[in-house]
Amino acid sequence: NQKVKEKLMRRSVVIAVLCAALSMLIGAGIRSSFGLFQLPLVEQMGTGRETFSLAMAINNIIFGLPLAGLLADRFGPRRVLIGGGAVYAIGLMLLANVGTPTGLHLTLGLLIGLGLSATTYVVVIGAVGQLVPPEQRSRTFGFVTAMGSMGMLLMPLVTGWLLAGVGKDTSLRLLAVLAGSVVLLAFGLPSRLGDISQAGFMGEEEPFLRVLKRAGRHGGYLLLCLGFFVCGFHVAFIGAHLPAFLSDVGFGTRLQGTALALIGGFNIVGSYLFGWLGDHYRKKYLLSFLYFARTVVFGLFFFLPITQTSVILFAASIGFLWLATVPLTSGTVAQIFGARYLATLYGMVFFSHQVGAFLGVWLGGYFYDAIGSYAPVWYMAMALGLLASVVHLPISDAPLAKLTPELKPTA
Q: Which residues, 6 or more positions from 106, have their beta carbon under 8 angstroms from its beta carbon?
C-alpha cells in the first residue's frame, strides 16, 4: 500500500544519505592527512617542497574538474562513485612505491585527484540534493560535509599513528584499502536519477545547455565562483603547509597532527551549524561573515607570537570556519537553479575552488623554496578573505523559476 511505499522510500533516502556521508568521511579524511606525508616524501626523493606542492596543486585541479559531476548527472552517482573509489585506492597503492617527482605527480596528482573528484563533494552532494526537499537541503548538505569533517578529525590522528608505527609505505597501502571500501558504499546510492526520489525534489526539467547558459549569465553564480576560489586557496594552503610551517617554528609531529585533527573536529560543528543556519537565514550573508572571520583568524595567528596555545586556538577557530562554506555555497546554487543539474553546476563552482587550491598549495611551496618563508601567502590569504567577504553581499539568490524574464538578475 501507499504507506509501505513511503516508508521504504524514506528508508532508501536515509541509507543513501548515510552512504554518501561515509564516502565523504573516507575520501575527505584521507585527503586531509596528505600534509603529513610531505616531509617523508621530499626527503625520500631528495627534492624541495615545491615538488610536493606541485603534486598537490595538480591534485587540486584534477579534483575540481566538473567531469565527475557531468557523469553523475548523466549516468547516476552510483557508477561514478564505484569508479572513483577504485581509482583512489589504486593511486594510493602506487604512491607507496613512488621514487621520482614524475611518479609523485602522476599518483598523488593525477590518479588520486581523479578518485577524489568522484568520491566526495560534487558527486555526493549532487546526489543528496535530489533526494531531500528544498527546505531540508542546507542542513543535509551540512550533515554530509560534517561527516567529511569527522574524517578530517580521525584520519590525521590515525595516519600519524600509522606513520610512527609502520612507516610511510605501509601507511599508504592501508589507506588504499580504506579508500577501496567506497566502492561498497556506492551501492547505497541510486543507480539512476530519480530511482529513489522519483525526481520529486529535482525541480522542473529543463534542457542541460539552457541551464548552463542561464548560469553563465547569472552574475551571482559568477560571484559564488569567485568566493569559492578564495575558500580553496585558504584550505589548500593550510591543509598542505601547516604541518611544515609548524615544524619550521620548532613544533613536532604530535602538535602537527593535533592541529589537523582539531581543524577536522571543529569543522564538524561549523559545517552542521552553518548548514542549519542556511535553512533559516540568507546564505550569502552567512558566507560573507565566514570569509571575514577567516581573515581575522589568519591575522591574529600570523602577527601574534606562535605558541602551542596559539596553534591550538588557531586550529580550533579556522576549523570552525573551514568547510562551513560548502553547505552554504552548494545550497545557494540549488536555491537559484534547482537540484536537477546540481552536480554539474556545483561542480563548476567547485572547480573555481580547486583553481584557488592549486594556487594556495603551489605558491606555498614556491615561496618557501624561493625565500624560505610562507609570509607572502599568509598576506594573500588575508587579502583574499576580505575580497570574498565583500563579493557575496550583492548576490541575487532568488530562485530563477520564480522570476519573470524581465526581473532575472545579473548579480
A: none
Torsional sign, CA 43, 48, 52, 53: positive
Q: Say what the pLDDT of residue 406 is.
A: 44
Number of neighbouring beta carbons within 10 Å of residue 410: 9
- Closest C-alpha among 391, 380, 361 to residue 299: 380
- Residue 194 pLDDT: 52
Are the C-beta atoms of 182 and 26 separated by less than 8 Å?
Answer: yes
Amino acid at 317: S
Residue 326 confidence (pLDDT):
85
- Which amino acid is present at 153? L
Q: Are 85 and 186 in contact (CB under 8 A)?
A: yes
Give average pLDDT by consecutive 10-residue segment, the chain, 411 residues.
Answer: 66 84 89 84 82 85 80 83 93 90 91 89 77 75 81 83 87 94 88 51 56 71 91 90 87 82 85 85 92 96 93 94 87 77 78 88 88 93 96 83 48 50
**Type of residue numbered 119:** T
Q: What is residue 403's predicted lDDT score, i.e. its pLDDT?
A: 44
Is the CB of residue 1 less than 8 Å from the CB of residue 210?
no
Residue with cell 535553512: 279
pLDDT of 207 reads: 58
